[in-house]
Predict the structure.
Amino acid sequence: MVRLLTHNLLACHAKDCNTNNFPLQFKDVQLEIREADFNPEFLKGFMPKIDWKALVDTARQLGDTSLPLEQPEMVDDEFLKNLHHILLEIHVEEGSMTCPNCGHVYPISNGIPNMLLAEHEIG
Amino acid sequence: MPPRALEVAKVEGRPETYEDQNVHAVYDEIAAHFSSTRYKPWPIIAKFISSLTTGWVGLDSGTGNGKYLPLPLDRPGGIWTIGLDRSRNLLEIARTAGSFSASREVVWGNVLDNPWRPGIFDYAISIATIHHLATHERRRLAVKRLIQSISPSHGRALIYVWAIEQDELSKRKVVSDNETPSFTGKDVIVPWVLSKNLQVPSNNSSDKNGEPQVYHRYYHMFAQGELSRLVIEAAEELGLQLEHKRRDEGQNVRGVEIVQDGWERSNYYVELRLWQT
């Protein structure tokens, strides 16, 4: 599965690609929305690790504009529910992710991203 | 069934190619049958996962059929473990590990790569994976990658590998009893007899004779102390101190503490915790 939870952690790892290699850019995606159990305690614990700009930009590219541009200091239930939906309920089933720096394309098939590199691309 | 002696493996050619043929290809073939025999979490691993803080995210490097992804069962969704594996067919099973209606996060990748923001995970586990790498250098690199994937200030990791010392319940036995103790472990071939009702009909002549298909996997069986030494070497290469965090330490010192190491049911394990001043 590629949900935005995972997407926010992934980075390009091709040889010599060390800067501006995150976030990977989704392309030609097929999405599925599947309900997941709401766990506010998880979300609060995970928030400090989120790269907020990457998450907001990516969610907007996928058509969800419910998140504020800055991560709020005080969180309410409505915010957490939006965050929950974006991180854990939007599944990218097909498509690809492109590195903004080197242009490497990581395909996604049946919900599984292929992060393998060819031998000459390994750093 | 009495223990079978295992054949010694000779790693020849390029290790990448050797692993492709003797590990990755085999797991893709036996994925369904293998997974049906691997459903019970080992106690030390389940305990480790239960001890993790709600809100943490982790990496299961070499997740196989993903049996650790649903844990802890008493705190569903309290932490998220992302499974990475080299076998695409095992990942197809791992993506619904624990329940067919569940969705797990899985990534197709190599444990020697780091397709992540550096140090972004709070924890990482590597269970029964590093022993499939065909050289000492590659096993050390896998440990380095695991350490690099977790937070330098609080990251925790647990590594499990097969031991030369197999317990009395094991179906397998290493070569012979009267050898001198090894410090460098042993490379062996472990057969996998594919369950007949999971075999794919093919033109393979062994099918016609009614013989089961047998696949051979490469394993490096670890000697006593070898796993901890691998961790120490990896930590030294990464410039980490190998002791407890001390109060009088200067600024920006990084280290790794070995929290526990031992042997459990035919496996060696080591638990690590990173720290930073």
